[in-house]
């Protein structure tokens, strides 16, 4: 039973929903796309792409460590991402003795170091039991095959929790992201929001990376919101547009991957990249610094 | 320990690669380009896979991809510094291409690709041949020499671009050259430390040196020394403990040095403020 593309689009669509694994993948993709697009809108606004990349590679030590301890991989994802979020949130703030209080240079050095320590730990776990994990590629680049009903349910719960937290702090976080100093001066707990946001980001990334793999989370997390912010700076319109872009990306990528032999990660990143380039060309060109 | 040839090769290549990473890393941290370095090291991995897919020498792919990305980042960004969203989306896409190539490679060549992947991702300093080690040392030394040579104008261009432009320093071209040097070091170090761990050797020593001293030349030297020290310690540790991969040991030591530096400076600050208070 190999899937084949026919001329009839209705027939093709029906074919997509024939197998339970594909239905699960589409459901998981939808949940993840909505979550990643909304969290990612703040990531792009706050210019914390590097922190989110670091959190996303934490999926690797998480999964490798969970395999070593005999726990489910998804649990390792969540634990490692949360730990890294706390590490960055804690040290980047405390150690920023540099200019301007926030210390951009020192902060990015901290993030980079946290990232490699996580990866080195993952490599150590992997070399301690090489037999259990098939290879690092699946961890890093993801797969949409073999997603179970249980995983979809957990994804839904995590997404709802993360989104609820984000909605609760949406307005102060927007304020703190747009003008940090004024927000701090008017009594917004900026440092607490930083750490809380990193935690929500960690959850979102742990969820997304189960589908796209650790290295390709950006295709859903950063590309759709970045494209949306090229087109509009209004928060609500931008969020809606961002979700729409992410859904379009993941649905199209899954559909193409279903009919081809090549991995879904390639299609997700390519569609995301093309969307961003198109938005940059078509957009009014206002850049936020 | 030095009776084995592969250990001697590892020490030769490792020492100079660490020196280059440390020296360049200090500028990377001060210029706040850690994310760019990260992107370059990941793209090096795609370059290696692409070379394997086409069937040419791994190093051609490494250098071609990293240099191309460095050029793209330099051209796209203002003052030869691309903003992080552009970097993120671009390198995610390049990684996506890497996945595709990996899949093509896996269906055509068979089982060997898994080992290639693991080696490029995490490095295998003990797998270097004598020729490769000498080449790695030479390239690393050249990159170090370049950065030390342009250290003065580069420092001014980093700290005060407007003043540097007034003084007649080609700020943009210098930024591009710096990215190119970073690309070369990334490509060369990927073979020893691995694409995913390379960043630690760039960010951690530079970060530690920046915490310890604000003086540029001392910081540059300190950063290089910490990187070389981590490399030596890591190589020795992994030789003694056979379960410990060399890359993990090196990165662990570099990160420990950073953490110790952070702690040291915070203690120093506390002592200073206590002395001022009393």
CATH-assigned homologous superfamily of chain A:
ABC transporter involved in vitamin B12 uptake, BtuC
Radius of gyration of chain B: 19 Å
Structural class assignment of chain B: mainly alpha
Low-confidence segments of chain B? none
Describe the protein's topology.
The complex is a heterodimer of chains A (289) and B (278).
Chain A: H1 9-16, H2 20-46, H3 49-57, H4 59-69, H5 73-94, H6 104-128, H7 136-141, H8 149-168, H9 170-178, H10 180-185, H11 190-212, H12 218-221, H13 223-231, H14 235-259, H15 264-282
Helix pairs in contact in A: 2-8, 2-11, 2-13, 2-14, 3-5, 3-6, 3-11, 4-5, 4-6, 5-6, 5-11, 8-11, 13-14, 13-15, 14-15
Chain B: H1 5-30, H2 34-54, H3 58-76, H4 84-109, H5 112-122, H6 130-149, H7 151-159, H8 161-166, H9 171-190, H10 198-212, H11 216-240, H12 246-277
Helix pairs in contact in B: 1-6, 1-9, 1-10, 1-11, 2-3, 2-4, 2-5, 2-9, 2-10, 3-9, 4-5, 6-9, 7-9, 10-11, 10-12, 11-12
In short:
Chain A has 289 residues and is mostly helical. Helices cover 77% and strands 0% of the residues of chain A.
What would you note in describing this structure?
The complex is a heterodimer of chains A (289) and B (278). Chain A is mostly helical and 289 residues long. Chain A has a single domain (9-282), classed as ABC transporter involved in vitamin B12 uptake, BtuC. Chain A is built from 15 helices and no strands. In chain A, helix 2 runs parallel beside helix 8 (149-168) and helix 3 packs antiparallel against helix 5 (73-94). By secondary structure, chain B is mainly alpha-helical. The mean pLDDT of chain B is 82. Chain B has one domain (5-271): ABC transporter involved in vitamin B12 uptake, BtuC, CATH 1.10.3470.10. Classes of the chains: A mainly alpha (289), B mainly alpha (278).
